[in-house]
Design a protein that fits this description.
alpha/beta, Rossmann fold, 3 domains, 12 helices, 15 strands
Amino acid sequence: MLDPIYYTDPELRAEADTERKRYRQSNGGDESWRELELVRFADMQPRLDGRPLVKGLIERDQMSLGFGEPSCGKSFLFLDLGLHIAAGYEWFGRTVAQGAVVYIATEAGRAIFNRVAAWRFHHRLNDIPFAAVTSPIDLCHATTGDLDRLIAASRAAKIDPPTLVIIDTVSRTLAGGDENSPADMGAFVRSLDRLRERLGCHILAIHHSGKDQSRGARGHSLLKAAVDTEIEVIRCDNIKVSTATVTKQRDGLSGDQITFRLRPVEIGSNQDGDPVTSCVVEPTDETPEKRSATRLPPSAKIALTTLQKAIAEAGKEAPASSHTPLTRVVEVETWRRYHYVGTATDGQTEEARKKAFQRAREKLQAAGTIGLHAELVWIIGDARS
């Protein structure tokens, strides 16, 4: 309840109304006004009735961010997530709360039709409460009115009110805004907040990794700070497997992982009679580490261990190059010294040690476990490719 002085003192009331007008204008002209909720310490009871959208992963009415390098499979993965929620199907063994989903396909546009068709054929479904926006959307500049049009279109769709809205991608919906600018990214986050509040749904934004992938999603940190859950997708091209890792969980533990590959699905033929294909997400328990461990001889496994130690103690970030991934590397000669120390035996000649190291290195390279370029070496399972 407002202090009675607000009603009895015209000067204070005029000052408060001016502040409210300024606030509305700074937030895109939103004419709605709600008093701030203030809850006393004694009234803050534990909330034990969680509202998971995907159990153990994301909650309803929150925001999440999925990001990764181009072609890592992130759009396929999060589209698959949305379609499973719309269908009410478990997702990677996790129960979901079934509900309508709106997918903002500003990057794929109408190309999303083939991806959805592949999923529909694969799962043999005729219809689920899922819809896609294929038009350009500006969520950075409030004066365009795109946010209100998006809310109106979502409410008017011939499906239930959405429980999830997926934005693919952040950069496309910034519509020319500077993702490194706190002003533009702040405006974008405010749009997500308004979208979430007015539709009463979870917002999942898909974004790209930065040049320094170890620092996460590119752009201003306002976005990462705003989301409740963050998921990074990394693809290992050597075995064609992608890994999605929870790198932030506001109210829980991070580190949960999902591994998957993309499986081609034929959806028809074109005008020349050639098959047209898209992909669906297929869960797998294979990882680069498991693949390497099952086929490496003992000498190569030892060499991999000494390489891990060398990188941990003497490694450095890879120089900017199209030949090396964004990961930690070490000079081959440094690795050799670590290997000699870790495998020293009495009576072994220098030549024998050299040949043993060379054979182990070749085994690791042939197995696709390590990468080599210009006397630098790295572990492919650790590479963020």
